[in-house]
Amino acid sequence: MIWRLMTGEDMDAVSAVSDAVHGPYTEPRAVYAERRDLYPTGCFVLETDNGVVGYLIVHPWRHEAPPPLGEMVHALPNTADSLYLHDLALTPDVRGTGMGASGTAIAFDLAVSTGLYDLFLLAVGNADRFWATRGFTPVRNVALADHLCTAYGPEVIYIHCRVSST
Q1: How far is residue 116's CA from residue 95's CA, in Å, rounded to a whole number?
Q2: pLDDT, tens digit, for every residue of 91-128?
Q3: Which of 8, 23, 90, 117 has CB 3.0 to 4.6 Å from 54, enough for a Cys bridge?
Q4: Helix, strand, or coil here: 63?
């Protein structure tokens, strides 16, 4: 298994992984393609001999306003203050193999190389437990939490990790 940069030809496979993994939280194929077009440096797929079995999408963003689920963002902010970890998705057959940790390491390396040391993401479906083992903690912002619950449902947790440059 190897992580490699995502290409335009990977969009059908990325969409299929999302559909298989995320259920009601899957997004339209166009969302993944747009994120890749806007920030190809932060888009990766996990590939095996059998094809794409996972993906990672990370891009610069403003921490106080996570991108809405399933919607196009049209542009990245000129005043990005963090990286948004849009998604790390792995098919069930590769979970537990260390690929989640290696995908997270890619995101951490990107944070260091860009100088945007704060990583944020929205965790659903108890994914916060996975992220907690990687140093992520819940963001304490009542107004934002209320807004996210309206958009994503009551199980969403906005979490953060400050990546060390050493």
Answers
A1: 28
A2: 999 998 999 999 999 999 999 999 999 999 988 877 88
A3: 90
A4: coil
Instruction: Dump pLDDT digits (tens) for 25-84.
Output: 889 999 999 999 999 999 999 999 999 999 999 999 998 888 888 899 999 999 999 999
Instruction: For residue 115, give Cα distances in angstroms to 31, 62, 83, 110, 142.
Output: 25, 14, 10, 8, 28
Residue type, 152: Y
Q: Which amino acid is at 109?
A: D
Q: Return the structure tokens found at 103.
A: 């995908």
For residues 134 and 24, give the distance between their C-alpha atoms in angstroms, rounded to a whole number: 25
Q: H/E element holding 12?
A: helix 11-22
Q: In this structure, what DSSP letter does residue 27 have? A: -
Helices 11-22 and 29-38, axial angle in degrees (round to 10): 120
* Report field, pTM of the whole predicted structure over 0.85: yes
In which residue are the tokens 């963090």 written?
82
Q: Domains of the chain, with CATH numbers? A: 2-162 (3.40.630.30)
Q: Residue 158: which residues within 8 A CB-CB, separation 6 or more?
A: 66, 120, 121, 122, 123, 138, 139, 141, 144, 145, 148
List residues bridging with 97 in a β-sheet: none
